[in-house]
Specification:
The protein is mostly beta strands. The protein is built from 2 helices and 16 strands. The strands form 2 sheets. Strands 1, 4, 5, 7, 12, 13, 14 and 16 form an 8-stranded antiparallel sheet that branches. An 8-stranded antiparallel sheet has the order 2-3-6-15-8-9-10-11, with no helix packed on it. The two termini are 23 Å apart.
Length: 268
């Protein structure tokens, strides 16, 4: 059953909570109470220990270059994790939920909801690029998931989410790509402001062949008729945060929380 009043407001929702316009039709409680319906995940990062090497911790797998840390910040009202120590050129810090198996699929019979609240300290060009969203878990690796010097997602793999390139430090763009195929047209979704949180999310409905991307609860792009060769509709994907600096200067990245739900992907 949905956990929000059924409305689809077009007003921006910049508060700390999840965006009702995105989650209004998600059967959150039904999925939580009945795992056969699908999978729901939310994390505020309370209780996560510092990650300094490639390791498993709880539901996560982390990958980072030497010296890069992914760690909770102190003195926060709720949990916040920060990527820091990335002071060598192309330093990366990745966090993955659903490593190896994946858990969300973007095919004709599937539905996916996802949202994350993020910010980065600097929007200067070459400071830090990142991708957040979904990708193929078995192919995640430091040095290959994001392309060196650009932080562009690897064109040979599947990605659905949001990308910020090193060369355009304040531009957040929607992103979808079936590995090895022609990348679908996406848009500049938002201008990132330094040290300011932004919520980026997406909603996929395979029944209608539609995917929508959201910024602060407002739809910024809708793609329809997407089930086909150039859409990643067969693999189960994992939720991930991937960062890379474009110069040998530390550039921090924070994530306040993330949330995802997928139904229809568990049947086979």
């Amino acid at each position: 059953m949905p956990t929000y009043t059924q409305y689809m407001s077009g007003d921006a929702n910049t508060g700390r909570g999840a965006s009702p316009s995105l989650w209004a039709d998600c059967p959150t409680l039904e999925v939580i109470h009945d795992p056969s319906r699908g999978h729901h995940f939310f994390d505020d990062f309370i209780g996560l220990s510092a990650l300094t090497t490639a390791t498993f911790q709880g539901p996560y797998y982390s990958l980072q270059d030497a010296g890069v840390t992914i760690a909770p910040l102190a003195n926060q009202d709720m949990g916040v994790i920060e990527v820091a120590g990335n002071d060598a050129d192309n330093d990366e810090g990745h966090l993955i939920y659903g490593f190896e198996g994946g858990w969300a699929r973007f095919g004709p019979g599937d539905k996916v909801w996802w949202e994350a609240r993020i910010k980065k300290a600097s929007v200067a060009n070459e400071a830090l690029g990142f991708f957040v969203g979904f990708t193929e878990p078995e192919n995640i690796a430091v040095g290959t998931t994001l392309v060196a010097d650009t932080a562009a997602p690897d064109a040979s793999e599947d990605f659905v989410g949001f990308s910020c390139l090193c060369a355009d430090g304040d531009v957040l763009e929607t992103y979808v790509h079936e590995g090895g195929q022609t990348r679908l047209a996406t848009v500049d979704a938002a201008t990132i402001v330094a040290d300011t949180y932004i919520k980026c999310g997406l909603k996929f409905n395979g029944q209608y062949g539609q995917c929508q991307w959201y910024i602060n609860g407002v739809v910024v792009q809708t793609l329809t008729g997407i089930n086909g060769l150039n859409w990643p509709d067969t693999n189960h994907l994992a939720m991930g945060m991937f960062t890379q600096v474009g110069a040998a200067v530390e550039s921090k990245f924070e994530m306040d929380w993330w949330r995802g739900c997928a139904i229809g992907s568990q049947d086979d």
